[in-house]
Amino acid sequence: ERLGKQRERFPELSGLYKPTESLGQGTYAVVWRAHVLHGDAEGSEVAVKRFKTQHNKLSRLQNEAQMLIQCRDGTNVVALHKIVRKDEKVAFILPYFPHDSFRDNLHRFDVQHTLRYIGGLFAALTHVHACGVVHRDVKPSNALYSFERREMLLVD
C-alpha cells in the first residue's frame, strides 16, 4: 500500500526510488533523499531534485541538465546520474551527499575546515567556469560541507 501511495505522489520515480526525507526546497524544485529500490545500487541513497510543475519549463530543465553534464567530471561539483519523467513530472537523480548544516556548525569552522571548505569551493567554481558556466546562486546552502569527510560539494 505504501509503495502505491509513493507511486501516486511521485509518478516519475516509477517505483525505482523511494523518497524518505525532504532535504530542502528552492524556487524551482524540492530536493528529497531517496533509497534506490532496484539494480546494482539497490539500497543506496540518492538525492532526487524534483521540479515544481509551474516551473517545469523544458528549456530551463535542458539548460540545467546540459550544465551538469558539461561539468560532470569536476572536482567538488555535483554529478547528474539520471533524469526521470512521467507526464509533467520531472526529476534529476543526483548523488546523496551527507553534510552538516552550515548555520548550525559555523562555530566548528577552524582554520583547517575553513581552508578545506573555501579550497573546495574555489576548485568547484574554477571547474564550472572552465566549462563555460556561471553559477549564479553561490551560497552556503548550495556549497555543502561534511566535517567528518572534510569534503565540499557545489550543488544547484
Automatic annotation (TrEMBL):
EC number(s) stated in the UniProt entry for this protein: 2.7.11.1
The keyword Transferase appears for this protein: yes
One Pfam family linked to the record: Pkinase
Top-rank taxon: Eukaryota
Entry's transmembrane regions: none
Molecular function per GO: ATP binding; protein serine/threonine kinase activity
Residues reported in the UniProt entry to bind ATP: K49
Keywords from the named record: ATP-binding, Kinase, Nucleotide-binding, Serine/threonine-protein kinase, Transferase
GO cellular component: nucleus
Enzyme class: transferase
One GO term of the biological process aspect: mitotic DNA damage checkpoint signaling
Positions of the Protein kinase domain: 17-156
Protein's name according to its UniProt entry: non-specific serine/threonine protein kinase
Native source organism of the sequence: Diacronema lutheri
